[in-house]
Write a structure and sequence with these properties.
The protein has 464 residues and is α/β, with parallel strands linked by helices. It contains 14 helices and 24 strands. α7 links the parallel β10 and β11. The protein is globular, with a radius of gyration of 23 Å. Bound molecules: flavin-adenine dinucleotide. Keywords: Cytoplasm, Disulfide bond, FAD, Flavoprotein, NAD, Nucleotide-binding, Oxidoreductase, Redox-active center.
């Protein structure tokens, strides 16, 4: 059978791939998507969306316990873990269906199967019913990533879980060990701890949420400990001894190895790109550890072959993947898009309290040689935060003292994952402190703290 020909073939229908496909189709290109498992990729099915659905349940549970504080009553507060998970899976399913609908509406041809690249411009799709050969001038790799597994700490789905197991738990953990305090580890720690699991987080670096500003990490640690979480920093899980219903963890801390027993372990030690079994090495694609090497326009070393999203490296975020998808589709269609600027991509962690940031941390700004001005504003000084019953948090801003450029913004507290976008827009528009100070923020909102933090950096804060 003759190979089916397209302008663009996208491999993987995650937030990188499906968005690239839709944008390509909108620009008049004939587009095919090859997906081996699920529309929407990790993000919709096993990542961003189902975790946020779980965290919403734990947030409501937390608020129910505080009912009295709001003049309300709630008796016999409890939860049904199966129902919590069922809701999360339902939310993922709804969005997964939505992606299929969007691809159809934009006349993108979908092949459900495993893709390989037998030669330049060629894609082979293996489905249950055989193999289909496709050709295209441009191919976009968007195969994403999966959980990293460390030797000895491998998941077994019963005692030791990856994020997939943690999203569909076989039981409610009583004594939980979370290995790794990046966004994924901390979100699960927050979820299970709020539901009552006795939770310990082990982080090899000297602080939790290590990519965040050090002040935010310290604030988060204090807040989590107040909620009963145990946090071990500069600590490493060396070994897990598994027995029936229990795991003994050998944890190295301060030069000594101590043992602790848990009934469940979540391993959240990072991710690795899905670079294998595609035929990339034979094509001459450069791979750095587990990620495809690209230039700023997501071009690989092979002409006409692009890589976007998690397979193309950090930051491993859905919005970065989607933005790269749009950029590459526009490039292929003959446009002149701007490359994605990683330093303008916000990172959000939906734990309680939430954490969000964009741009340089204070340490990185100093390291880069900037003379800086730093502003801070605490949630306790904000009327809306008090009214919401969320007085815990802070907004920190970092400016270039010479030019007034907003170098970075770092927040912890209620709804900061929504607020951060204000600063992202500011950075995109290359705003200075002057524009931000002149901007009128509505009252009463949490966003007023974003204003006050800027004012504070220049000694003009009103409410603190
Ligand atoms: C628990 C968890 C929570 C997260 N929360 C957030 C969050 O809140 N915000 C955020 O921005 N990011 C979050 N992420 C990260 C986010 O999910 C990823 O950054 C995002 O999914 C990357 O998109 P992608 O398109 O590159 O790849 P993916 O979403 O991984 O999609 C890749 C797709 O390619 C398919 N595929 C792979 N190989 C082949 C092949 N050979 N042939 C055919 N198909 C193939 C896969 O089946 C998959 O569907 C989270 C991740 C996890 C694990």
């Amino acid at each position: 059978m003759a190979a089916k020909s397209f302008d663009v073939i996208v491999i993987g229908a995650g937030p990188g791939g499906y968005v690239a496909a839709i944008r390509g189709a909108q620009l008049g290109l004939s587009v095919a998507v090859v997906e081996r498992e699920h529309m929407g990729g990790i993000c919709l099915n096993w990542g961003c969306i189902p975790t946020k659905a779980l965290l919403r349940s734990s947030e409501v549970f937390h608020l129910m316990h505080r009912a009295k504080e709001f003049g309300l009553s709630a008796d016999s507060i409890g939860f049904d873990l199966d129902a919590v998970v069922k809701r999360s899976r339902g939310v993922a399913k709804q969005l997964n269906g939505g992606v299929g609908h969007l691809l159809k509406k934009n006349k993108v041809t979908v092949f459900m199967g495993q893709a390989t690249l037998p030669a330049k411009g060629k894609v082979s799709v293996t489905t249950d019913s055989g193999t289909e050969e496709l050709t295209a001038k441009s191919i976009i790799l968007a195969t994403g990533a999966r959980a990293r597994e460390l030797p000895g700490l491998e998941a077994d789905g019963d005692l030791v879980w990856t994020y997939k197991h943690a999203l569909t738990p076989v039981r409610m953990p009583k004594k939980l060990l979370v290995i790794g305090s990046g966004a994924i580890g901390i979100e699960f720690a927050s979820f299970y701890n709020t539901l009552g699991a006795d939770t310990t987080v082990v982080e090899v670096m000297d602080r939790i949420l290590p990519v965040e500003d050090a002040e935010i990490s310290a604030f988060a640690k204090k807040a989590f400990e107040k909620q009963g979480m145990k946090i071990l920093q500069k600590a490493a899980v060396k070994k897990l001894d598994r027995a029936k219903g229990k795991v003994t963890a050998h944890i190295e801390i301060g030069g000594k190895v101590e043992t602790q027993e848990f009934d469940t372990v979540i391993s959240a030690v990072g991710i690795v790109g899905n670079v294998e079994d595609l035929g990339l090495e034979a094509l001459g694609v450069q791979i750095d550890r587990t990620h495809v090497v690209t230039d700023a326009y997501c071009r690989t070393a092979v002409d006409g072959l692009y890589a976007i999203g998690d397979i193309a490296g950090a930051p491993w975020l859905a919005h970065k993947a989607s933005h790269e998808g749009v950029m590459v589709a526009e490039l292929i269609a003959g446009g002149t898009p701007h490359p994605v600027k990683p330093e303008s991509i916000a990172g959000c962690t939906y734990c309680y309290p939430q954490v969000a940031s964009v741009g340089l941390t204070e340490a990185k700004a100093v390291e880069a040689g900037y003379d800086i001005k730093v502003g801070r504003f605490p949630f306790i000084g904000n009327g809306k935060a008090i009214a919401l019953g969320e007085p815990e948090g802070m907004v920190k801003t970092i400016f270039d003292a010479k030019t007034g450029e907003l170098l970075g913004a770092h927040m912890i507290g209620a709804e900061v994952t929504e607020l951060i976008q204000g600063y992202v827009v500011g950075r995109q528009l290359e705003t200075t402190e002057e524009d931000l100070m002149q901007t009128v923020f509505p009252h009463p909102t949490l966003s007023e703290m974003m204003h006050e933090s800027v004012l504070d950096a220049f000694g003009k804060a009103i409410h603190f």
